[in-house]
Write a structure and sequence with these properties.
This protein is an alpha+beta fold and about 90 residues long. Helices cover about 60% and strands about 15% of the residues.
Length: about 90
């Protein structure tokens, strides 16, 4: 992972609402529908859409359209790459 990608992910993770969204997706077995998210998080729909866009732009979550619904999944590969990037910064 390059520094630019890591920077975008760090910015996406710096918001409490986005962290809450990630926790909720994890709690739902790494898969959550957009309509369900509105019932869980106390935010207006445009705010939820904004946060989801930030997370999908960094590929931390992946979206999949199922008919009229959108399903969000955690992208474990990107999360693992980000953790590895941070570990590489650590001194021995």
């Amino acid at each position: 992972m390059n520094s630019k990608k890591a920077e975008k992910i760090a910015k996406a993770l710096s918001d409490a609402n986005r962290l809450l969204i990630l926790k909720e997706i994890k709690k739902q077995n790494d898969c959550l529908y957009c309509v369900d998210l509105g019932n869980i998080i106390d935010l207006a729909q445009p705010s939820i859409a904004h946060h989801l866009k930030q997370l999908t732009d960094t590929e931390i979550i992946l979206q999949e359209k199922e008919g009229r619904n959108v399903k969000y999944n955690l992208n474990n590969k990107i999360i693992e790459d980000y953790i590895e990037f941070l570990q590489d910064l650590k001194t021995d």
